[in-house]
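Subject: for your reference before the review

Hello V.,

The reviewers asked for a structural picture of the protein, and I figured it would be easier to keep everything in one thread rather than splitting it across files. Below is the amino acid sequence we used in the manuscript, unchanged from the supplementary table.
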Amino acid sequence: MFGGESLTTIDAKGRTSIPARFREVLVTEFGDERFVVTKASPVDFDDGSYGRGLSVYPLGEWQELEKKIQANEGELPLAQLNSLKRLVLGPAQECTADKLGRVLIPPALRIHANLGRDLYFVGMGRRFDIWASETYARVNAQDERNFPQDSAALAALGI
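And here is what came back from the structure prediction:
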């Protein structure tokens, strides 16, 4: 499972280094160094703006997710399903890190996520996300506002 946060940078060509522990998880837990980069679910900042980042899925996880979306396992109305396909499936790019662990983030995805020099890689269990550092600060603040207050639910999760 992907866990933890790593602050890193992206160069002018759009290359960034995937944290070593994330690369290790790709190979040891998912058995493949290939992965798919796509748009992450936007975070509503409650002020009319949204935080946009990227989600990175191991190839096998992506293939399962893609099948679920295509089969509409979430039973979404057609308009929402088509939006999901356009926002998640459409921009998805299969990638592999080079021998130094670097990956080229496709230009359209860099623009979408407003990636500047400093990035956060954030482990999310079976995937990891990539955020511009400024956006991630706002995402964290929103997460604190959204954090569950139900102590029984948190206890059931072991938190």
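For the response letter, the relevant points are probably these. Helices lie at 20-28, 59-70, 78-89, 107-112, 133-146, 151-157. The chain has a mean pLDDT of 95.

Happy to draft the paragraph if you're swamped.

O.
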